């Protein structure tokens, strides 16, 4: 087998592993951000659902004030 084909196959395998690691890290980051948002809204894991909150809750946030 030609060595360039072997190297190409190894590079493709390494790229696939890197993609899996990146996806795992991104999911972890998204879960952490979701947890942060729920904490800021006062809706932790043991808090009631936000389904019945008033209109406008979770809408725009004025950060200039």
Short overview:
The chain is an all-alpha fold. It has one helix at residues 3-40.
What does the model show?
By secondary structure, the chain is mainly α. It is built from one helix and no strands. The model has no long low-confidence stretch (mean pLDDT 80).
Task: Tell me the Rg in angstroms.
Answer: 22 Å
Q: Biggest sheet, open or closed, and with what strands and sense?
A: none
Overall structural class, as computed from helix and strand content, comes to mainly alpha
Number of helical regions: 1
Mean pLDDT over the residues: 80
| Global outline | rod-shaped
- Helix percent band: 55-70%
What's the helix and strand layout?
Blueprint: H1 3-40
Characteristics of this structure?
65 residues; mainly alpha; 58% helix
